[in-house]
Automatic annotation (TrEMBL):
Pathway: Cofactor biosynthesis; coenzyme A biosynthesis; CoA from (R)-pantothenate: step 2/5; Cofactor biosynthesis; coenzyme A biosynthesis; CoA from (R)-pantothenate: step 3/5. The chain holds residues 175 to 396 of 396 of the full protein. Transmembrane segments: none annotated. It catalyses: (R)-4'-phosphopantothenate + L-cysteine + CTP = N-[(R)-4-phosphopantothenoyl]-L-cysteine + CMP + diphosphate + H(+); N-[(R)-4-phosphopantothenoyl]-L-cysteine + H(+) = (R)-4'-phosphopantetheine + CO2. Binds 1 FMN per subunit. Its EC number is 4.1.1.36, 6.3.2.5. The gene is coaBC. Residues 15-222 are annotated as: Phosphopantothenate--cysteine ligase. The lineage of its organism: Bacteria, Pseudomonadati, Pseudomonadota, Alphaproteobacteria, Rhodobacterales. Residues 10-219 form the DNA/pantothenate metabolism flavoprotein C-terminal domain. In the C-terminal section; belongs to the PPC synthetase family. The keyword Metal-binding applies. Catalyzes two sequential steps in the biosynthesis of coenzyme A. In the first step cysteine is conjugated to 4'-phosphopantothenate to form 4-phosphopantothenoylcysteine. In the second step the latter compound is decarboxylated to form 4'-phosphopantotheine. CTP binds at residues 102, 112, 129-132, 148, 162, 166. This is Coenzyme A biosynthesis bifunctional protein CoaBC.
Length: 222
């Protein structure tokens, strides 16, 4: 009885969680990034740890501090995030909540680009690695891989296509249209997409979303 009490439903499971934005440098003082506070990813890592999981939390520069009781790997760019995730494999599950920048500046300047009257800098971009898709296709693919999809239109169809394209098990989709107040807010409205279809969750706090998702993950890994 004592043992059962002390053990959570994820005890002995290793889970990688990515969170926050990545920053892609333009020069030493400027970068491009996605909007992301890191709140949802942090809440998920905390909820998984609360169920006893050994969590590796790979985070870009987020607004909120990482949870306690998890292994934290801090990264800046998408390429650093991929390297950190790969170094953390193998794992039983991966939850990819990070808002990874899709592109990086081709040749980031080592020195600050100065304003010059009458001229504008021109930046060229190249595509960043897709961390989620790379992990899904790796030989060390975790048994359960959960991706996210923040969309503004046709949420379910975009997210369903994304699940197929990336070959992940679940997609946590959310509508981040301006006006929903989701982006940067404390609540989230989720549709969970798996091989059976789409399940709409009522709007709830990000902590509650995290606990519900962690319970689902525990059920799936049991
Ligand atoms: N993702 C990732 N690495 C990237 C881009 C995205 O790991 N370079 C992950 C995100 O963490 C998320 C999922 O892939 O779990 C979907 O991200 P999203 O930006 O919605 O998908 P994209 O394929 O980049 O499509 P788009 O931005 O055009 O909607
Ligand atoms: Ca993207």
């Amino acid at each position: 009885i004592q043992r059962a009490f002390e053990q959570g439903s994820l005890t002995g499971r290793r889970i990688i969680v990515t969170s926050g934005p990545t920053h892609e440098p333009i020069d030493p003082v400027r970068y491009i990034a996605n909007r992301s506070s890191g709140a949802q990813g942090t809440a998920i890592a905390r909820a998984l740890a609360a169920l006893g999981a050994e969590v590796v939390f790979v985070t870009g520069p987020a607004d909120v501090p990482p949870p306690v009781g998890v292994e934290v790997m801090r990264v800046e760019t998408a390429r650093e995030m991929l390297a950190a995730v790969e170094s953390a494999l193998p794992a039983d599950a991966g939850v990819f909540a990070a808002a990874v920048a899709d592109w990086r500046v081709k040749e980031a300047s080592m020195s600050k680009i100065k304003k010059e009257k009458g001229t504008l800098p021109s930046l060229s971009f190249e595509e960043n690695p897709d961390i989620l898709a790379t992990v899904c296709r790796s030989e060390q693919r975790p048994r359960l891989v959960v991706g996210f999809a923040a969309e503004t239109d046709d949420v379910v169809s975009h997210a369903t296509a994304k699940r197929a394209r990336k070959e992940c098990d679940w997609i946590v989709a959310n509508d981040v249209s301006p006006g929903t107040g989701i982006m940067g807010g404390s609540e989230n409205a989720i549709t969970l997409i798996d091989g059976d279809g789409a399940e709409e969750w009522p709007r709830m706090g990000k902590d509650e979303v995290a606990r519900k998702l962690a319970a689902r993950i525990a059920e799936s890994l049991s």
